[in-house]
């Protein structure tokens, strides 16, 4: 993977599906694309970076499809200027990316690493030079391996180490970066990593996973306090959660209880302490019945509920739940009540996730009613089995339709009163998709992993044109032009 190519600039929409303005989205609505460090950067042992839990996990036989890893990924570390050119060509005003903790602070302790920080210095400056707002995520799952060796997120000390790292990163970039997200999808870190074992670090202990939930949230709160107290405090400080909907399959008591449990473990376990400063009583009781107590100490919930400016929402699907197994039983082999996902009979992505855009509207309205925070869609997108580029084009009408339906769902939520302020497509480009290796492609841009050539897909062209048309229509409706970031990038 050594060939270097310039980022292609879309110049024609001849092969792009028709784009239309999306009614109901204002001129100052944010449009972006998103990535994460381990999925695109590569260069895992350059300039002082030390291993993360994903570097280690990828070496476990059978852990990742095809035995693949992020050693090179999209080689973004070496191709960053071209990739920023590519981002600019899509007409977005915001780029959400994550910092690699073991690149910023090797080993997870001590001083910052000037060589690693320098990469993000250059990235931020390149973005700003292009009129693109950098939106930084501090943690997108790449915990330094040394901290996992010391116990990882189930240990309280990791929360304090995270706050130290956050302060180092903010000291380096906070003079230019004004939009900060602490954690990406703590549910995935805790449950997939420490309970189900399908993500790094690959552990399987339910009690550890619930302790990880609390310490992830505590780390968020401690880091948020540090950033609030720093010079150049963030204009927007938030956390990103992966959220869906939990609808009972019927009005039966068993189905309603199953939906309550799913909603409690997937949504309220995180948002109730973040916003209301308390864990939900029913979830605490359910955990106690399993012999698990959250390791809450005095002052923890006050820290966790440090005020947020924005809630990042990653949405991919919504679910219907039954409390009865297919054989009619209500208790599983583990002795726990059945919480079964019921198929809704809808088309599915290559990840086998049902496509239900109306659930996004439902979710955003619920979040507004129950938690009252401004929201930004920090990830939404779909993997499909794209054909390789032919004649310089990738025709991915299914992805374009997915994006169109979900952007309209966001507009519908705004019309219903939800304060949704932006939409970031996942992902900028095809990349390392965790335990799936390189088998699943989410990108608006196709990546040939053998040559590292980038090709904008039809969905990327459609997204660019939709942004432009929507901004133009919103500017006319408001009697003026888009301003600030939007005008600069458009």
TrEMBL record:
- Which EC number applies? 3.2.1.21
**PROSITE patterns cross-referenced by the UniProt entry:** GLYCOSYL_HYDROL_F1_1 (PS00572), GLYCOSYL_HYDROL_F1_2 (PS00653)
What keywords are assigned to this protein?
A: Carbohydrate metabolism, Cellulose degradation, Glycosidase, Hydrolase, Polysaccharide degradation
Recorded GO MF terms = beta-glucosidase activity
GO terms under cellular component: cytosol
Matching InterPro entries: GH, GH_1_N_CS, Glyco_hydro_1, Glyco_hydro_1_AS, Glyco_hydro_1_beta-glucosidase
> Is Hydrolase a UniProt keyword of this protein?
yes
- List residues binding substrate: 39, 140, 184, 316, 426, 433-434
Q: Which reaction does it catalyse?
A: Hydrolysis of terminal, non-reducing beta-D-glucosyl residues with release of beta-D-glucose
The organism's superkingdom is given as: Bacteria
Q: Which family does it belong to?
A: Belongs to the glycosyl hydrolase 1 family.
What's the protein called, per UniProt?
A: Beta-glucosidase
Whose protein is this, by species? Streptomyces radiopugnans
| Source species taxonomy | Bacteria, Bacillati, Actinomycetota, Actinomycetes, Kitasatosporales
């Amino acid at each position: 993977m050594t060939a270097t190519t310039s980022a292609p600039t879309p110049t024609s929409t001849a092969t792009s599906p028709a784009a239309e303005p999306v009614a109901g989205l204002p001129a100052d609505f944010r449009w972006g694309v998103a990535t994460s460090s381990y999925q695109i950067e590569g260069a895992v042992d350059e300039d002082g970076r030390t291993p993360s839990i994903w570097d280690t996990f990828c070496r476990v036989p059978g852990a990742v499809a095809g035995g693949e890893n992020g050693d090179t990924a999209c080689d973004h570390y070496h191709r960053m200027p071209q990739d920023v050119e590519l981002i600019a060509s899509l007409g977005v005003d915001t780029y959400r990316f994550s910092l690699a903790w073991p690149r910023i602070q090797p080993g997870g302790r001590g001083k910052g690493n000037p060589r690693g920080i320098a990469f993000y210095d250059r990235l931020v400056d390149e973005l700003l030079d292009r009129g693109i707002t950098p939106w930084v995520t501090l943690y997108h799952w790449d915990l330094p391996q040394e901290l996992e060796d010391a116990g990882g997120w189930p240990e309280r000390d990791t929360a304090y180490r995270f706050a130290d790292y956050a302060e180092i990163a903010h000291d380096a970039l906070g003079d230019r970066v004004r939009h900060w997200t602490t954690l990406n999808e703590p549910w995935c870190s805790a449950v997939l990593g420490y309970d189900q074992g399908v993500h790094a670090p690959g552990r399987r202990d339910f009690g550890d996973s619930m302790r990880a939930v609390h310490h992830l949230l505590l780390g968020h709160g401690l880091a948020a306090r540090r950033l609030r107290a720093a010079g150049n405090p963030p204009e927007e400080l938030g956390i990103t959660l992966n959220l869906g909907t939990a609808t009972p399959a019927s009005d039966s008591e068993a189905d309603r209880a199953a939906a309550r449990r799913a909603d409690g473990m997937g949504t309220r376990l995180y948002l109730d302490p973040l916003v209301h400063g308390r864990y939900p009583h029913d979830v605490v009781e359910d955990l106690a019945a399993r012999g698990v107590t959250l390791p809450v100490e005095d002052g923890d919930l006050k820290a966790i509920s440090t005020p947020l400016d924005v809630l990042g929402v990653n949405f991919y699907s919504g679910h219907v739940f039954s409390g009865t197994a297919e054989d009619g039983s209500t208790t599983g082999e583990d002795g726990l009540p059945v919480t079964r996902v019921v198929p809704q009979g809808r088309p599915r992505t290559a990840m086998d996730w049902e496509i239900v855009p109306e659930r996004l509207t439902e979710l955003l309205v619920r979040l507004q009613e129950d938690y009252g925070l401004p929201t930004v869609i920090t990830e939404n997108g779909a993997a499909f089995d794209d054909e390789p580029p032919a004649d310089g084009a990738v025709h991915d009408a299914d992805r374009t339709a997915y994006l169109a339906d979900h952007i309209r769902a966001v507009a519908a939520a705004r019309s219903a009163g939800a304060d949704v302020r932006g939409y970031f497509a996942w992902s900028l480009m095809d990349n390392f998709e965790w335990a799936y290796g390189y088998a699943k492609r989410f990108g608006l841009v196709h990546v040939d992993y053998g040559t590292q050539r980038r090709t904008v897909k039809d969905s990327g062209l459609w997204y660019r044109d939709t942004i432009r048309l929507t901004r133009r229509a919103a500017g006319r409706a408001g009697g003026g032009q888009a301003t600030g970031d939007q005008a600069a990038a458009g």
